[in-house]
Amino acid sequence: MLRFLLVRDSEMSPDAAGGELAGMADAKSHWERVYSSKKPTDVSWYQPHLRLSLELIQRSGITPEDPVIDVGGGASTLVDDLLDLGFHRVTALDISEKAIDVSRRRLGVRADRVRWIAEDVLRAALPAGGYRLWHDRAVFHFLTDPGDRAEYIRQLRSALSPGGFALIATFSPEGPQKCSGLEVCKYSPARLVQELGAGFTIIESASEAHQTPSNVTQAFQYTLVSYGG
Fold first, then answer.
1. Domain boundaries defined on the chain
2. pTM metric for this prediction
3. Which of 47, 142, 150, 171 is the most exposed, fewest CB within 10 Å of its CB?
4. Do 80 and 73 contact (CB within 8 A), yes or no?
């Protein structure tokens, strides 16, 4: 990972490189503070089980033999449920090492059956065509900078195998303006697939009235898309 960053930095001016690294450090620091100051069950996006995600993943038609990546899945229980369903090529990526530690402790010996990546999804070195399904609940909507969204989509296109799927859950147009003190972008299925660009086709979408641990209702939109490559 260090080599990857150095190659990228060599292509930038010192000011640009310093700004990018500062932004990465700020994002990591923010999420490490969140998971240091709150229990995983107290963050607003917490769910005991990602029921709707699991339903849509199963309806996509992928099999337990297919590789799956959960982006921003550090403390989520999705990996637990995927293992229970027989999936054995599961990767969980999160910018927060503390969030990943939560899941590793929760899973115990089963944690060795998951590949863990503690990196920013915008910078992580992911295998080209390495995943049949990309799952993201509540990461993409934090990307308010167009350049960050473009880099996320580049990563998504590179990491998905042709014929693969992406399941992306964001705040819907009726959702909140902020989360965890950060501005967000809100998406309908049509706006999301327009943002993703050519090659992506909506398979199914579903809305969810998510009840936070503090008893606030947040409007989420889940969009399952196929990727033609």
1. 2-227
2. 0.84
3. 150
4. no
- Range from 45-49, 117-121, 153-157, 209-213 carrying the lowest mean pLDDT: 45-49
Question: In angstroms, rounded to a whole number, what is the distance separating the alpha carbons of residues 211 and 58?
Answer: 23
Contact 150, 121 (CB under 8 A): no
- Amino acid identity of residue 128, one-letter, is A
Reference 74, options 136, 21, 146; nearest CA is 136
DSSP letter string, 16-79: HHHHHHHHHHHHHHHHHHHHHHS-TTTSTT--SS-HHHHHHHHHTT--TTS-EEEET-SS-SHH
Which residue, chain included where needed, has tokens 């196929």? 226
Residue appearing with tokens 């309806």: 59
Closest CA to 174 of 218, 140, 211, 228: 218
Q: How confident is the model at residue 48 (pLDDT cuts 50, 70, 90)?
A: confident
Top pLDDT among 205 and 176 is at 205
